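As promised in the previous annual report, we have extended the structural survey to additional targets. Below is the entry for Solute carrier family 22 member 16.
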Amino acid sequence: MQNPPLTGARGARNTCQGIMSVDRLFDELGHFKRFQACLYFAAVFQAIACGIHYLASVFLVERPSFVCAPPGNVTDVLYGNYTGASLEEVLPFFKPAKGPMVVRTAEGKQWELSTCQRAQRINPTDFTYEQLVNRTTEKCDRNYHYVYDHSEVYQSIVTDWDLVCDREWLAKLCQPTFMMGVLVGALVFGDIADRVGRRRILMITSLCQFVFGVSVAFTGNYYLFMFIRFLLAMVSSGYLVVVFVYVTEFTGNKVRTWTSMHVHAAFAVGVMMVAITGYLVRTWRSYQIILSTCTSPFLFFCWKFPETPFYLMAKGRLQETQVLLDSIARFNGLEPGRLRAENLLEPEQALLEKEVAAGVAQPAEPEKKLSILDLFGTWRMAWRTVTVGAVWFISSLGYYVFSLGSVNLGGNQYINLFLAGAVEFPSYLIGCYAMDRVGRKRTCAPALLLAGMACMLIIVVPNDIEVLAIFLSMTGKFAIAIAFGLIYLYTCELYPTIIRSLAVGSGSMMCRVGSVVAPFCVYLADIWQFLPQLIVGILAFIIGILTLWLPETLGEPLTSTMEEAEALGRKKNPEEGKKDPEEGMEMNLNQSN
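The corresponding structure token record, generated without further manual editing, is:
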């Protein structure tokens, strides 16, 4: 049972406000020793499943070449210079823009077949591809069958449920609907994790990922498929949000950049696994089952995960904190008891603990429930929250616009997707190096500006120089992946323990808004080829400049209270004697009122 917050003669006070120095915990027990390493790699292993489920729809909704099926048995097929005895022989060469297929049935009737309609020739003279005769045309709908090319895609939900022609929009809703579930899950599970703990959410979401992932493969209709995928999206998002907070609260600031950024590397591994599995398995049900079970070993040891010391201290559970600290010390080869939980409290708060033990202090009233509104409690925090949310949004929008646009680069689609995941590794390596050398803010802002510049340059590149266009596209993906990778850690460091998961969850919600908008942004290419790049480029430039007003958190300990979080960046620069830009912004906002 959770111990209540404490109070005494000095006034009511939440224990989370009494945490003195998180640096001491890691200085004493190790920033990334054996205990943290085992816990980190175990937690990150399941993050591979998040990358898998986020991108799995690429091949679930893959649409092969198809035509409207004629009535009767086909005996002869003509398509340009191609001939065959069945539609399946010619379909791999079919291009709708180059004209219809002409077929002859066993009854002697001739049909011109297109993707969404078929026309019967009236009284044809002979069987040739082009013939000037009257035709009766009828639309192909669900009352008719379609014939699909199974040479590349043997089975997808498109071929199973005929999601083509007037039902094509249902297939296009698959990814945006999944991202809507991701959006909801990010907000819901981020809030719940601050209330019930990180450990419980990690266990529940990882189990549900396995159950819902396998269940998708056994759905019998489109609507059940979409519903279970929505639930799968919620729990996948919940795990990804909470695991960042979890690993951050178990590692010291000396390695926090590396551990946070490389959670994204696990996500990229998931993307590459989708490409490999999609290439090897061409039936969507088997494909889904394989992808959903590849991280199932995690379920056998996730129940051994401990709660984070930060969460236990914030909830006043000092005895459990002490047990955890002793376990960490023992596993790291150190002497148990070398660090006492009480020593992590301010002297004033430690005195209150002793008063309670002596029966002098009394339990406090139930602690205040924090909500998303607390992220906007002051002008300073409101400005910070808006800017951080904008970075989340453009990082996601740019990431998926570059990723979805990569399928149009030509070549093998499986190799393209594999490379889209592989290109993220140098992004995170360079991002880690820069974040620890020049700082979080001075890495994020230039990355966004570089992504915006790449978008603008793609617009002016001549269409016949494909190599340069591909290079700029990969440069944009590289830059946006840096911003996407560091914003999780940056958000964790900008907010205190009592509201950290909610802050990450809310930021991730803005991130998913970007991912929901991204597919529709890509569709704007039908209006103008470079309109998606123009939108991403302008937004990246603007938000990159706004990021310069955020405080730097490099080398700063994690904060525990809202007051400590607001104080970030308020110290004067000893070399320049200038105030933090964010403080200046706060002063301007106050003066305007």
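Residues 66-151 form one domain. Residues 466-494 form the longest helix (29 residues). These points will be discussed at the next consortium meeting with the crystallography subgroup.
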